[in-house]
Amino acid sequence: MTQPYPVPGPHQPPWPYPGPPSYHGPLPYQPPPIPPRYRPLRKVAIVSIVLMGLTSLAAVIQSALLWRSYDDVKRFVYGLLSEEEIDRGIASIAGTGPLLNLVSYLLMGTGIAFLIWLWQARDNTYFLYSPLAPRPMAEPQHSLHRRAQGWIVGAWFCPIVQFWYPLQLVQDVATASEPPEQPGAVRSGRMRTLLYGWWATWTGFWLIVVGGGGVAFVGFIVWIVRLVDAADAADATGDYVDIYDLQDFMVHVALAVNIGFTVATILLIVAAITASLLLLDITRRQHELATATRPTDAVPPPGPPQYAPRFNSSGPTFPSYGPHP
Question: Which value, to the nearest 10 degrees, does the dihedral of the CA atoms of residues 158, 169, 59, 272 take?
Answer without folding.
Answer: 170
